[in-house]
Design brief:
This protein is of the alpha/beta class. It has 15 helices and 17 strands. The longest helix is centred in the middle third of the chain and has 17 residues, at 212-228. The protein is globular, with a radius of gyration of 21 Å. Bound molecules: iron/sulfur cluster (SF4). The site of iron/sulfur cluster has 11 residues, from loops.
Length: 380
């Protein structure tokens, strides 16, 4: 098993209010912002990994949430200084941060850039005021456009998150949203379908969603529009101009390693020919208390190693999201397993037109991209 590239994920699990479709862990923030206690706990947690990561280089950092832009620039600077103190960063490190249009000003955006954040991901979700209201977002169209304009002013590299197939949305409205986002000229667009997740307000009270044939047309017209504007569809929901794929997310999908920090964050680290996984408790008060009282083992909700028999599923669960050819060597290097043992499955997929097997790599066909889940079932 080889040691893959390493990314660092920093979790800021706070939001102004919970959106009814969201199943990510985040807590509603109080009126005085993200507490310095959380930032201090995060900084202390980062220092715990300094020694074990001393031989490794961090290729990408992602500050995600929740709503990281609820941190003030000073707090972000403190976190970034702690990262610098504890880790070796690649000269070309990509440092992304998620930003919510309802929480940023031009001044903040300029400061994030000067602190060293070099990629911003703006969670616009829609540019239609009715849709934004139904999604209970805290921003409106005007604020989203203003935020995007400010981001474009200071960041050469930025992403816009946009959802489609929203409650009550027509084909025309979905394509108009996408067209408006393309006009903002981000070099990366995450365009994904709203799905109803368990244990969310939407799951308890399902809104009226577009019919299947409308959703199919949204996909077809949307893909074509993105293609016409030179956005390459490189992952299930990700589209990028040449050279602007998100390096941090790409590392997840190529089964790279990631170190997580913060309440609710996950890690996957290759160690001594095994893959170590940890998840941290989803409770910021408990997280802060345990860290400040040095009860470190209590910050982990789970701590285990991926069993050998699960490695193939775990690898393809991530890797099949990417549409680029899969080098057979990559599978063997990252799992320590032999491709020959599963070749018969891919030969079967080839007869079904889902993949094309070459000497050194596997190509997923257009048809195969629609049958990813069926293929994954064989690896469970
Ligand atoms: S702002 Fe983002 S993370 Fe927070 S509740 Fe809404 S969708 Fe979830």
């Amino acid at each position: 098993m080889i040691i893959p590239p390493l990314g660092l994920y920093i979790h800021i699990p706070f939001c102004v209010r919970k959106c009814p479709y969201c199943d990510f862990f985040s807590e509603k923030i109080g009126t005085d912002g993200v507490s310095d206690n959380y930032v201090s706990a995060l900084i202390k947690e980062l220092s715990l990994y300094s020694e074990s990561c001393s031989s490794r280089t961090i290729e990408s950092i992602y500050i995600g949430g929740g709503t990281p832009t609820l941190l003030n620039p000073k707090q972000i600077e403190m976190i970034m200084n702690a990262v610098d103190r504890n880790f070796r960063l690649s000269d070309s490190v990509e440092i992304s941060m998620e930003a919510n249009p309802g929480t940023v000003t031009e001044r903040n955006i300029r400061q994030y850039r000067s602190i060293g954040i070099n990629r911003l991901s703006l969670g616009v979700q829609s540019l239609n005021n009715d849709s934004l209201k139904r999604l209970c977002r805290i921003h409106d169209r005007h604020e989203a456009l203003q935020a995007a304009e400010n981001v474009a002013k200071y960041f050469q590299n930025f992403n816009i998150d946009l959802m489609h197939s929203l409650p009550g949305q027509s084909l025309k409205e979905a394509i108009s949203d996408l067209d408006d986002v393309i006009k903002l000229n981000p070099n990366h667009i995450s365009w994904y379908q709203l799905t109803i997740e368990e244990d969310t307000p939407y799951a308890r009270n399902i809104p009226s969603l577009p019919k299947e044939d409308v959703i199919d047309s949204i996909y077809l017209e949307g893909y074509e529009l993105l293609r016409q504007h030179s956005y390459e569809h490189y992952e299930v929901s990700a589209f990028a101009k040449k050279g602007f794929e998100c390096r941090h997310n790409r590392n997840y999908w190529t089964f790279g390693d990631y170190l997580g920090a913060g309440s609710g964050a996950h890690s996957k680290m290759t160690e001594n020919n095994r893959i170590h996984r940890q998840s941290r408790i989803e409770n910021t008060c408990e997280y802060i208390r345990n860290i400040s009282e040095d009860r470190i083992s209590n910050i982990y909700a789970s701590d285990d190693y991926i069993a050998n028999e699960d490695l193939t599923f775990e690898y393809f669960l991530n890797r099949l999201r990417l549409f680029s050819p899969i080098p057979i060597r990559e599978y063997e290097d990252l799992t320590g397993l032999r491709f020959e043992n599963i070749r018969h499955l891919f030969e079967k997929y080839e007869t079904e037109g889902l993949v094309s097997l070459r000497e050194d790599y596997i190509v997923i066909t257009c048809k195969g991209q629609l049958f990813i889940n069926q293929m994954l079932e064989d690896f469970i």
